[in-house]
Amino acid sequence: MSGPTxxxxxxxxxxxxxxxxxxxxxxxxxxWQLSGLELADSxxxxxxxMRRLEFARLRLLxxxxxxxxxxxxxxxxxxxxxxxxxxxxxxxxxxxxRSARELVGSVSVSGEVVEPSLPVTAAAEGVLSAEHxxxxxxxxxxxxxxxDTAHRGAAEEFLANQSRAMDATRIxxxxxxxxxxxxxxxxxxDDKPARRELSFxxxxxxxxxxxxxxxxxxxxxxxxxxxALAQPEPAHEGVPDARSAAAGSPTRWSSCAPAHxxxxxxxxxxxxxRR
Length: 275
What we know:
The protein is mainly α.
């Protein structure tokens, strides 16, 4: 599958040849001859066509994946082929395969027609960017599994329609709010075990970043322990410690670390999770 590219007289081959010619034409065009308005219109038109081409690429990928071409010809998964042949990152390869499954219908081995899981998003061909599609797909995956089909369909339709007027970053925030509206008390996710975590990760500057998620009891315990270490230091030569708790806490914790380590307790090393 790594040999020279060969295209049959199929219309796809003709379309790809036309695309190559169009790319050559764009590369050779004297762009300085365009007015400002023409440049703006050209950028918008090109973006629309690129988004249509993105959907066409997903159709090709969906067909490629459904036939298991990579597995039959090279013993690879579709994602493995994309990484080896197109030099895509693992995340990009996974994202493309997922988007193809979500936006393109297929026919099962038994001949049953399988509709796309994101039909409204798929219908917005040429309007939504690849980033929009991935944000919507991830948002739908993160919805509670107990959510009924009608509400899931309405959620996808809402996000797809809003994506026609908002960028992907705003849609990501909107999806979080939508999740909160659909499951305000988390009751639809009661079947999922609660996960507590606390991790320390060191950045390139040598500073440790603390990140975690705790239930109420564990949070109260940690806050009580850190709060005790963050008390104002005794006055030095009659001058009280004027730092706020937020500003002084890291320094105060550090000053307590040697004594703490001598008692046999020490914080977990960078990168280690406590659950």
